Amino acid sequence: QVQLVESGGGSVQAGGSLRLSCAASRYIWTTKCMGWFRQGPGKEREGVAFFYRPDDSTYYSNSVKGRFTISQDAAANTVYLQMNSLKPEDTASYYCAAASWCPRDFRTSAFSFWGQGTQVTVSA
Questions:
Q1: Which of 3, 17, 48, 72 is deepest in the core (most CB within 10 A)?
Q2: Cβ-contact 98, 111 below 8 angstroms
Q3: 18 exposed, middle or buried (CB, 10 Å; 0-12, 13-18, 19+)?
């Protein structure tokens, strides 16, 4: 079965933290790049953090750099997104995705596999 399943979303006050999880099927785990994207109300989907599994490289968008951390548990086929110092502008649906490479320009078109998304709401 080919799937990505996100969990861990919720509501939090500004300054708080959340950790998102993305469990990948065995087939998807063979891809090299795991990414987190988000889509806020009325906005386009944007990439926020990528993990390049061959060398554990990580990439972050400027909007989350220093606040979010992407990591993996290879034994569990799971990628995490630790989100700290959350801001109201971080409110969005967050999606996990997989690709054969990590695009440095964070384009969505490179990603072939997507999860269903999990909602994160940050109140002021």
A1: 48
A2: yes
A3: buried
SS3 98: strand
Q: Copy the structure tokens of residue 93.
A: 């649906």
Structure tokens at 71: 């990591």
Give me the residues paired with residue 50 across strands.
Answer: 35, 59
Please write the tens of the pLDDT for every residue from 14-34. 999 999 999 999 999 999 999
What tens digit of pLDDT does each residue of 43-95 get? 999 999 999 999 999 999 999 999 999 999 999 999 999 999 999 999 999 99
Helix (H, G, I), strand (E, B) or coil at 118: strand
| 65: CB partners within 8 A, 6+ apart | none
With beta carbons less than 8 A apart as the criterion, state whether 4 and 117 touch. no
DSSP per-residue string spanning 39-72: E-TTS--EEEEEEETTTTEEEE-TTTTTTEEEEE
